[in-house]
Amino acid sequence: MNIGIIVIATNKYTQFILPLYESIKKYFYPKENTNIFCFTDKDKEIVYKKNLITISIKHEPWPMMTLKRYEIFHNNRYVMNQQDYLFYMDIDMLIINYIDDILGEVIGTCHPYQNEKVPNCTYERNSKSLAYIPIGQGKNYFAGGFQGGKTDKYLAICEKLSYNINRDLENNIIALWNDESHWNRYLLDNPPDRILSPDYCCPEGKQKYTTKIIALNKNHNEIRS
Q1: Which pLDDT score is estimated for 212?
Q2: Which contacts qualify for 153-157: CB closer than 8 Å, 24 or more apart?
Q3: Rounded to an integer, what distance in angstroms lies between the CA atom of residue 40 and that of residue 104?
Q4: Handedness of CA 115, 138, 177, 86 (dihedral sign)
Q5: Distance from C-alpha of 214 to C-alpha of 212, rounded to nearest angstrom
Q6: 213: left (phi over 0), alpha (psi -120 to 50) or beta
């Protein structure tokens, strides 16, 4: 089975590539053929590693690199369409326990903070945005940092969300939590068949023995500059 993991690492985020790569190779479906697709502006500088495929993209200032992720994936779908499953991970994450039982058509991960506040969490409340969720709706708040599904299904979602985000941008709208807001709108209309706990998107320092993936602590302002 071929499993693809997609990451974006431009500018200062390239420092996270190798630590995440090593954790993926050790813990993420180690018995399968796992490929890491790294979209980066420094592809010529990255040391070759087995199953690490670099794809060159241009860096853009925050929040465009996260907001346009679905467009990047859709535009490069032919690079990844030979995988059986695709997962997206934030580059500043680490896998710390074995993962080998999370496959499904569409996989959503409950947010470690926001999910506890549903339906009064910070969904997008601007009714002019295509990410809009009215007050009182929603059963889960899904993190943008770890998501995926069967390749054809996930790439179709990327196409849809890319369209919605670009429509918002044409109207000078950026949703509150960027691409994550659009992901939540999509999953409200199309619930995932596999819902993962916050153990798959846990802040560093808050992990328990059940935690699978941590989001590393960092200075956001410094690293986004």
Answers
A1: 98
A2: 153/105, 153/106, 154/85, 154/86, 154/106, 155/73, 155/74, 155/77, 155/80, 155/81, 155/86, 157/70, 157/106, 157/186
A3: 28
A4: positive
A5: 7
A6: beta
One-letter amino acid of 96: I
Structure tokens given for 197: 């706990």
H runs (alpha helix) in the chain: 17-27, 64-67, 69-75, 77-80, 151-170, 178-189, 220-224
List, in order of start, the domains of the chain with CATH numbers.
2-224 (3.90.550.10)
The answer to whether residues 148 and 195 touch, using CB atoms and an 8 Å cutoff, is no
Residues of the chain below pLDDT 70: none
Give the span between the Cα atoms of 162 and 67, in whole angstroms.
Answer: 9
Rounded to two decimals, the pTM is: 0.96
The pLDDT value recorded for residue 48 is: 83
Q: Distance from first CA to last CA of the chain, Å, rounded?
A: 39
Sign of the dihedral through C-alpha 60, 165, 93, 76: negative
Residues, the chain, total? Answer: 225
A 10 A CB-CB count for 96 gives 16
Q: Are residues 185 and 124 in contact, defined by beta-carbon separation less than 8 angstroms? A: yes
